[in-house]
Amino acid sequence: MATVARPRTAAELSPRPNVASANQQLPGVIDYEQVDRDIGGILTPTAGWFGALAIAIALFLWGAGTWTYQIYWGLGNAGYNPPVMWGVYIISFVFWIGIGHAGTLISAILYLFRAGFRTTIYRCAEAMTVFAVMTAGLFPIIHIGRPWKFFWLIAYPNWRLIWPNFKSPLIWDVFAISTYLTVSATFLYVGLVPDIAVLRDRATNPLKKRILAVMSLGWRNSEKEWRHFARMYLFLAAFSTPLVLSVHSVVSFDFAMAINPGWHTTIFPPYFVAGAIFSGLGMVFTIIIPIRKFFRLQHYVTINHLDAAAKLCLTTSMIVGCAYLVEFWIAWYSGNQFEQMYFWNRVFGQWWWAAWIMITCNMIFPLSLFSQKLRRNPAWLFILSIFINLGMWFERFVIIVPTLSHEFEPWQWSSYVPSWVDISILIGSFGWFFMWFLLFIKQLPVIAIAEVKEIVLPRLRAPHPHEDAIDVTGQHQTYEPDTPGEFA
Amino acid sequence: MGIVAAFHELDATVDAIEDLKSQKITDFTVYTPTPRHEIEDAVNPPPSPVRRFTLIGGFCGACFGYWIAIWTSDYWPLVVGGKAVASWIPYTIIGFELMVLVGSLSTVAGMFINSRIPKITLTVGFDPRFTSGHFGIWIPSAADSARVIEDTLRKHGAEEVRRED
Questions:
Q1: Chain-centroid distance, C-alpha B136
Q2: What pLDDT, in 10s, does the model give residues A214-225?
Q3: CB distance A223–B39 less than 8 Å?
Q4: How far is A272 from chain B (nearest CA, A)?
Q5: CB under 8 Å to A269, separation ≥6 — which residues?
Q6: Which of A20, A190, A328, A396 is the most buried (most CB within 10 A)?
Q7: CA torsion angle for A39, A44, A48, A52 (degrees, to 10)?
Q8: Taking a C-beta distance cutoff of 8 angstroms, is the pair B3, B150 a contact?
Q9: Which domains does chain B have, with CATH numbers?
Q10: Considering the entire predicted model, what is its pTM?
C-alpha cells in the first residue's frame, strides 16, 4: 500500500535557527579589514578590565601571602591530619590540569575533526590551557614541605648518579605535565605569530611596533610561510591529541597505581580524561561568555558556536555520569567488601554531601542542555558553567578525600576539614589564573584573526556564484567556504 | 630590483599568478592574508618538508626516552617489588612523552627553517597591507622585463603596482 506524505505545517517548513550542527559562517563579518578592526580594537584597556585585573592580582597576592605563611610555619597549617595527607592542594592540582584539557581538545582534536565552530573560541581555550597548567604546576610544589627542593623531581643525576625512579607515577607526572605545558605553550605561540604580524603592521606606537616585530619573528604572510605553517600546525595537533589523552591518564595513575579502595581501578584513565574535558568546557563557557558580551563579539562567537560547544559539553557530561555509575557496578561486581563499603560511604555515609554536589552539578544540571532553548541561552550556559566548575572540583574531592579517610582498617578512619590556609591558596590560584588571562586578552588577539579570515568570504572581482543565496536567518546556505586548516 | 603588486580581490590574484606562470615567470612570492586553496592551486608548490622533521624528531625523542629510563635502571640495578629492573611498560610513558616533546619542537624548528624565520631584516617587496586585506605578488625582475610584468599585473586588476630596489 502506498503511503502518502503528511503535508508539512508552516512551522515545520520555516527555517530553524539551529540546523544539525553549528554553522561556522559569520554573516556579520563582511571583509578581512573588519576582522582586523574588530579583534584589534578590543585590545585597548578599559576601566572594567583594570578593575577585574586588580581583583585578580589582589586574590593572587592573598594566596601568595598565605603560602609564605605556610612555608614559615610549616605544612601542618594546611589542615592535613593522618591518614588524609592529600587534600585541597592535590584536588586543585587535578582540577586545574583538567581545566587545561578542553583547550587542547578545542584547539587540536576539533581541528583534526574539522569542527568549524572551534575557530572563534580556540584561542581563548588554548590560552586557558597554558595558564591552567601553569596554575596546576604550582600545587605539587605548594604541597611539598620544602618547596625549594622541588627540582629533585626533575630527571637529572645527583652527585652519586642516582636518578629518579622512572617506575614512579610521580615522575611520570613530571614528564607528562612538563611536556604538556611546553607543547601547549608552543602551540599557542606559533598560532599567534601570524596574528602578531597583523598587530605589528597596524601598530602606531613605535615601541609597541618594535616589540611586536620581534614577537612576530618577521612573519610576512607569504604563501611559502603559510604552507609550512599549515603542515606544522597539523602535526602539532596530531601530537597534542594523544598527549592530552595521556596527561590525564598519567594523573589518574597517581591514584590507580595505589591499592586503596576507590582508586585501584582500570576505569580511571578514560574517566579522568572525560572529566577533564568536561570541566575544561565548563571553564571555556565561564570565560568566553563574558568576553563575548563585554567585548561585543557576538558576531564572532555566535549562538551557533555556543550551541555546538554545549552539545559537546552535554556529551562529556553523560560520559562522566556513565563512569560514575560504572564505578558502582565495578565495586558490586568485584565482590570486594572494602570497595563496596567505600562506595556506600561515598554517597550515603560520611561524604554524602560532597558526592551529591558532584552528581547534581555534573550529571543532573547538564541534562538541561538537551533543550535547544537553553543551549542557545548564554546566560544559562554561564550559570551552568559555574555549577560544572564547582561539581568538577568536588569530583576530585570525592575521589581523594573519602579514600584516604576510609581505608582498610577502621581504627584509621578519620575526617578532613580544609584550613583557612588551604582555602586561601585555592582562591589565590584563581587570582593567579585570571591575572594571566586578563593580561593576555589585552595584549594579544583573543580570537584568531588569520583563521577567522579563512571563513570570511574573500573579496572577488566577479560576483560570487552563491552570494545571493542568503536565507532569512542571514546564513549563507549554499556557499561552502574552505574548512579552516585544510590549506596544504 | 623587483615589482610588487597589491590586489584586493582573490580571483584577480589567482588570474595574475596563472598569467605569470604562462609567461614562464615562476620566481615570485605570493602574499595572502589567510591561507587560500585557490592560491595554493595556482602556485602549485611542492609538499612541505616539515613532516620529515616531525618524523625524525619524534623517533629520536622516543628512543631517548626509553634509553634514559633503561640505562639509569641498569646503572643502579635495584629490584623493587620483584619487578624487572628495566620495565619497558612503564618506560613507555617516558618514551611517549619525549616523543611528543621532541617531535613537536622539531616540527616547529622545521617550520622555522623552511620558512626562513625568524627574520630580523626588512623584506623588500612586502607591504603591510598583505597582513590585512590585500593579496600581493613580489616578482624579482630585470629592468628590461619589468614593463611586461607590470602590464600583466595591471591587466588583472592590481590595485597598485610599483618597482622596488
A1: 18
A2: 999 999 999 999
A3: yes
A4: 17
A5: A248, A249, A252, A253, A256
A6: A396
A7: 80
A8: yes
A9: 2-45+125-164 (3.30.70), 50-115 (no CATH)
A10: 0.89
